[in-house]
């Protein structure tokens, strides 16, 4: 089909807008028409048997179908076939015939324009042939570095002599931008078209060379990576066959990554040591025992949370609020704790680095809340809590870490605690620091000196790690039952906060406010399902527990909760269980031996002493009898050396009192011989301790007793039995006596006075120094129920005690 088969140009013909491709005269191409304007133009051309012009849209106007959005040039051709597609589009087969240019719009819908064919200018054949040869050479070069030109197209370019046809062929093959393609398309000067195209071909050659070079490098790299991967996989299989594994290389890389991540937060010695061990590990045979030991070391060392700290600032108000929330009473200990942390907060606020300071140590009987106070402190500070039980610790390496030469070596408990806490500033509770034992395997208390000393613990060296750890930001809290068992140098570094026994009233409040609700919740019981009267709680405290703290009381309430839970399950009709004094025995086991209440009946030779025990205070009855003899004294009741010596001193003091007539002995109490009776011989009062043997007993006999506080009670018992005067049974006493008769101060006054309060004593005699110094620490309910009298001399004691 030729252009001459149609009407002459210029002519008014329909216009089809094309967004995607730039068409050329020699092309037969399918066009997919979706918009109404293009479909109408194609339909009009088919119906009228006319040509159409396909004009590309300008890059910034793609999708628009107005005359101004189109280039003013395109390909004139005919529509060979038209097919309607199911999706509403129309497919036409277009055959290009000639380049043409539009000169104005004729109508809008369908778009019709006035079109004329672009005619090429005459050319110098020799010159153009020379330029054409250059173009063909450049095309061959481009074909060598790209896949633009298939062989048959190259052959067509080589053999064709239609200049503009060659240019159009090459332009349709090379990737040109729309603007570049349009410029070459509308140019009428064939020589200029050739020269411009040669420039584009040269640029394309350079671009394709660069792309080929990059592709070659990438391909080489990929080949290298694939080769390495293939070889590594082969090596893995070979090593597996030999019994080894390359997962070790991955482990080494992981260790190095972990070390580099922690490098900025570690000290130089730590980094150097761990790095050295990683390099040693990389050179070891994986099956050697040293490799296993070194790998274990690296696992421990790289788990230490270097630089990780709880960021919450210390606030004394939050510490106080948490202590009040978790603990009833304990005003003095809570005040001391608040003062301790107030100093730390003030130093933080003023930017003063805390270089020294004492370590808190809670001391008191079991079950009074020493560890739970530490829990409250950790909760208030929002720091992890680490508990290290020191009871029975004998090996110093448990704290310092074992040297790596030993089988099963591991870091010390302090470092393990830091790893568990994942922070470098946790709260560490050193439980039962008074029970650390010194053996042939070192002295753990000496290691504790370094751990707890603020001047030294910023460079605490763990033997296993072999580098220093900074413990200066750790808050250490120790607990102890008896501070006398803590070595003096260690005791010197501690701030002791005494937590003494609870009074029955305090126990009642703790049980109702804390223990009962907590235990009911633990056992799945609702508050509405269990009620216990205050009288029943009082009876439970008095008759079913005997302790300074509330641990056994919690255990008793837990036992009761289990029984109630079983009762509710077995009897679904029961919706509420009420406990009173009457049915208390149904839910609790047998009662314990509690402090016996006083009978308030005066008795000869029986005195109420007060004692401190590990479970609180106790009333110690001291019994004495006299037997005719020669002045000897026998002591029973598992007494320790100190109490035996107190008894000997007491006997000497009483003898002195009798000799100096300060203790009156009636004649009726002195045993006389028949001759003395017959002759009415007057006998000296000192004969009373020469003619009687004394037997002093402290019940119960199976319980060991010792301590320097029974002196005045022993003096009172001996004075009573020798003088025959009765002792007031509602009066209790505590205090040591000197050989000259002075009353000396004692310890454990709070526990002893609480025991006297439980035994319904009306009066208690205590040393005057204790009266002046320690009375403010005694609970108000105890002070109000007892008449507390301070005494300085043994004569004062006897005036209060003897009837």
TrEMBL record:
Its EC number is 3.4.21.53. GO terms for cellular component: cytoplasm. Pfam families: AAA (PF00004), Lon_C (PF05362), Lon_lid (PF22667), LON_substr_bdg (PF02190). Residues 601-803 form the Lon proteolytic domain. InterPro entries: AAA+_ATPase (IPR003593), ATPase_AAA_core (IPR003959), Lon_bac (IPR027543), Lon_bac/euk-typ (IPR004815), Lon_lid (IPR054594), Lon_proteolytic (IPR008269), Lon_Prtase (IPR027065), Lon_prtase_N (IPR003111). One of its GO terms (biological process) is protein quality control for misfolded or incompletely synthesized proteins. Induction: By heat shock. Gene3D superfamilies: 1.10.8.60, 1.20.5.5270, 1.20.58.1480, 3.30.230.10, LON domain-like, P-loop containing nucleotide triphosphate hydrolases. PANTHER family: LON PROTEASE, LON PROTEASE HOMOLOG, MITOCHONDRIAL. This is Lon protease. It comes from Sulfurimonas denitrificans (strain ATCC 33889 / DSM 1251) (Thiomicrospira denitrificans (strain ATCC 33889 / DSM 1251)). The gene is lon.
